[in-house]
Amino acid sequence: MSFAVIGGRPCAGPFLYQTVEHRNASRETSPGTDPFSGNRSELEMGLKEIYRPYFPIGAAVPASAFDHPSALHAIAEQYASLTCENDMKPEALLDREENQKNPAACDRTPALRFDRVVPYLEFAKENGIGMRGHTLVWHNQTPRWFFAKEYRSEPDAPLADRETMLARLESYIRDIMDRCPAT
């Protein structure tokens, strides 16, 4: 079992952290492929550089990170990809006001809002960081009104039928994938 400190908290897990000596002893290296063969020390390198030979390392980023330039700098320096912590989940993307105002027009094609996702997309593009989708459909963060007929919000509102829900889900997922470019 290995231990590391990630985000100020100790974490344990197999292969979570390996020392330079262990990593170099456990694989063959050739000139130019070992991230430690240059002039920079491990302490000067970001996690994305250290783990580049093994896998791209990413971070789940909360919206609050955009209020802290030092957090954004650390993300850009340390990670090769980012994932929106909650801003790409249904409760953040579904446009409640529009869906409830025009339920007939939105019945099988729910209206979405991408204003909360734009800062992530722009930051990723500006910093050459990949962006990954995260839990497009999540039961705990999908509002009940999304499943209701006419997007009604009463706790006892009747549920939409199976065909309507399948169409809503397909439209919802396609819209996200079409509007958020692959990185």
Write the layout of secondary structure elements.
Blueprint: E1 2-6, E2 9-13, H1 20-25, H2 47-50, E3 58-61, H3 69-78, E4 81-84, H4 90-93, H5 96-101, H6 103-106, H7 118-127, E5 130-132, H8 162-179
What keywords describe this structure?
183 residues; elongated; single chain; two-stranded antiparallel sheet
Structural class: alpha/beta
Q: What is the residue-averaged pLDDT?
A: 80
Radius of gyration: 21 Å
Shape: elongated
Report the sheet with the most strands, covering strand number, pairing sense and barrel closure: 3 strands, parallel
Uncertain stretches of 5 or more adjacent residues = 1-36
What's the β-strand tally? 5
Strand order of the largest sheet: 3-4-5
What is the H-and-E element order? EEHHEHEHHHHEH
Descriptive report:
This protein is of the alpha/beta class and 183 residues long. It is built from eight helices and five strands, in the order ββααβαβααααβα. The strands form two sheets. The chain has a three-stranded parallel sheet, with helices on one face. Strands 1-2 form a two-stranded antiparallel ribbon. It is elongated and about 60 Å long. The model is unreliable at 1-36 (pLDDT under 50).
